Amino acid sequence: MRIVTQRGMAQVLTVAVGLVLLCVVFAMINPNFISTRNIPNLLRQIVPFLIIGIAQAYVLITGNIDLSIGSVVGMSCMMSATLMTRGHMNPLPAVIITMAVCLIFGLINGILVGKFKLPPFIATLGTMTICRGIAQIANGGRNTDSILKPTGAAGEVFRNIFYQGKIDFGDPKNPVFILYSGVILAAVIWAVFNFLLSRTRTGRHIYAIGSNPEAAKLSGVDIVATTCSAYLISAFCAGTVGLITMATTTLGTMDAGNTYELYAVAAAVIGGVSTLGGQGLLVGVIVGAAIWAVLQNGLSLANAQVAIKNIVVGLIVVLSVMLDVVIRGGASGGPKSLFTKWFRRAGENQQATPPQ
Predict the structure, then answer these.
(1) Where in the chain is the domain with CATH 1.10.3470?
(2) What is the C-alpha separation between 320 and 18, in angstroms, rounded?
(3) Cα angle: 276, vertex 269, 126; to 5 degrees
(4) What is the Cα–Cα distance from 334 to 322, expressed in whole angstroms?
(5) Alpha carbon of 147 to those of 90, 154, 159, 265: distances in Å?
(6) Around Cβ 112, how many Cβ atoms within 10 Å?
(7) CATH class of the domain at 9-304
(8) CA 281, 286, 290 angle in degrees (round to 5)?
(9) What is the pLDDT of residues 238-279, one digit of tens each?
């Protein structure tokens, strides 16, 4: 009961019901949707959406936004692949250098927003452009070659960790179910950051500055440090998705991460994270990411056009944000505002009416 009655859990449960209905519809359209071959691939499709959804959720809960996520994904993908191919570097130091650069940009975002009070839209729009530029010049304005030839066995290990590795359940030649390493990696990342958000002082501070930054500051919360923490986590998750993207194709592509800002916002908001700050659960991000992946997968199996996919997803994002604003009473004249005014006026009239 304590879990069910958490703030924001009602919306998560509602969206979860929608996810189940969505799966039923796609299964009726194409039975292959629930096949033992498609479900492992569907879980693997959820992975990048879940990780970048976590990234955006942390920032949204602080009352800010991170538009640089997609470009950090692209920069991570291109930089790591370039270090492995042109630099003939072992994957381990290449990953360390790439993630360090991503975290530097996360720290820059946090300082610009938290210390210098730049609007998050402007600050992260600037770093978004810079990171995309780095992705474009990393390999001289072209995509990289495959990392497998110059890195050899180490490259295979890297790919198995971030994408290709799997655990077969049942007969190895004809497994009942396959669990890919990317899914395990995403589950570990979610568990760590969910614990950080729900069980630590840093998590409480993140909620506090999103709910009321002035009150949080008066309570002794370090606004700058907390904002930097959220953006550092966002950059870490985006950098990890860049590595997963590169491991998937084994090469760096300059357009990697394009439109991932939309994916991140969709996964977080659909899962119940408020765009107004101060509210949201990472368990909802799992549901939001799953809905996004199910839509992509199911519409593909239904042979829907790409334009239809974009329209459907765009409508869902807009409706989710609108629902959040109305529920939180942020929209003037919204249902909550109208009901509040009506009950207040009714109470005043009742007090003004003399007893008979």
Answers:
(1) 9-304
(2) 12
(3) 70
(4) 10
(5) 10, 10, 10, 31
(6) 21
(7) mainly alpha
(8) 145
(9) 999 999 999 999 999 999 999 899 889 989 988 889 888 998
